[in-house]
């Protein structure tokens, strides 16, 4: 919650959400209906666009994808740590530390409420 509303803290996510919604609707740019560049996280934007296409553009969908991505990253980190020779407890601590690090991106996006 930020200032009493459920949203995100950074403008980057607003940009990703705008691009994703436009992609889901068949457009290619954040501000026009012409293709444009400007993405700093194209995979995340494509995942958001797919989610918007399947489940609709909503903050619940975005946060669900974010939680699923964080859990997947923690599992991959744990497996990688084990493959690199870390002990099972150390690999688990690394995965938990990644999850504990909290949110890394987000923006206020009234259009996605």
Structural class assignment: mainly alpha
N-to-C CA distance: 13 Å
Number of strand segments: 0
Radius of gyration: 16 Å
Question: How many H/I helices?
Answer: 4
What are the main properties of this structure?
113 residues; mainly alpha; elongated; disordered C terminus
Can you offer a commentary on this structure?
The structure is a single chain. 58% of the residues lie in helices and 0% in strands. The protein has helices at 11-24, 42-55, 59-83, 88-100. The protein is elongated and about 50 Å long.
Question: In terms of topology, how is this protein built?
Answer:
Blueprint: H1 11-24, H2 42-55, H3 59-83, H4 88-100
Helix pairs in contact: 1-2, 3-4
Structure at a glance:
The protein has 113 residues and is an all-alpha fold. It contains four helices and no strands.
């Amino acid at each position: 919650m930020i200032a009493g509303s459920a949203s995100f803290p950074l403008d980057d996510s607003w940009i990703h959400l705008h691009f994703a919604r436009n992609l889901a609707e068949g457009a290619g740019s954040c501000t026009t209906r012409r293709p444009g560049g400007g993405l700093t996280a194209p995979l995340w934007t494509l995942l958001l666009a797919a989610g918007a296409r399947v489940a609709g553009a909503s903050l619940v969908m975005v946060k669900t994808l974010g939680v699923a991505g964080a859990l997947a990253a923690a599992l991959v980190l744990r497996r990688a740590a084990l493959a690199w020779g870390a002990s099972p407890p150390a690999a688990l601590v690394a995965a938990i530390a990644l999850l504990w690090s909290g949110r890394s991106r987000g923006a206020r996006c009234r259009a996605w409420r």
